[in-house]
DNA sequence: CACTCCTAGTTCGTAATACATACAGTTGGG
DNA sequence: CCCAACTGTATGTATTACGAACTAGGAGTG
């Protein structure tokens, strides 16, 4: 068959293009790892946001850049799997804190570690200096 | 635990985390630009894949990492908007070449330029040397 | 040619995603 | 107390994504 994609990766003169491809790679890794744990990428991302501790719906919508109605549904589905719980906020009775269950903690950690490990693997070709430089440069763009 | 001495505003000690955040940023930019042009991110991504020229369904599924049934639907919806056409391959009568229409070319270019421009804007804080270094480092990881 | 296997895409059914809109309960300021 | 603002849900719609089953066109072998 026709093989057109030979000269494809080597000519990387463009920073935005490199950024887009990096995003594509990360999305792919996230999708693979999620699937390994029987989660959708969105569900896995949600779980990862909760590892550090319970988060309210409003904060979650900001973190994941979703409308609140979308977040409601997402939390619904993850809650239905017993990975997450809605706990009433004691101070504000309108609000919930979304909290990982015991199973949820386990799965969230495994997913998070899976993503990190795979990304580390992809970055393994870098020297220590290059790693530090890349981290710093990404940090600068992300500010 | 590894702790680099690089201190930016945020505590960014971790390369994988930086990569994930970069991906999140790019996804966001893509979503915003797409929305400005009345496209979904997936539709915009498809259009961008076609800027260089017509592509068959099989190649598209590989490029976008989708199942062929998903790609069928995606092309359907974009074709229904008149942005893309299925053209029979002359050599293989099972195959199609997916091709941008005139409107499609216009919109694809605008979307592509929009994404590039916004990412350039985000990277504007980098010096020329830093830009080159970041591009090269991303390229190395992407291999 | 007949036969078989493979490939290119579609169709269909299902679940998840994402949004806008409309809604209910709560909070806090005047 | 009243009401605007806020927190989150419910509903309806379109899109996304997948797998399985399918059609039809190549491609190789006897």
UniProtKB/TrEMBL annotation, chains A, B:
Going by the UniProt record, its keywords in alphabetical order are: Coiled coil
Q: Give the residues annotated as coiled coil.
A: 109-136
Entry-linked Gene3D superfamilies: Winged helix-like DNA-binding domain superfamily/Winged helix DNA-binding domain
**Residue ranges occupied by any HTH marR-type domain in the UniProt entry:** 12-143
One of this protein's Pfam families, by short name? MarR_2
Q: What domain of life does the native source organism fall in?
A: Bacteria
PANTHER family reported in the protein's UniProt record? HTH-TYPE TRANSCRIPTIONAL REPRESSOR YETL, TRANSCRIPTIONAL REGULATOR, MARR FAMILY
Q: What is this protein called?
A: MarR family transcriptional regulator
Q: Which organism is it from?
A: Saccharopolyspora taberi
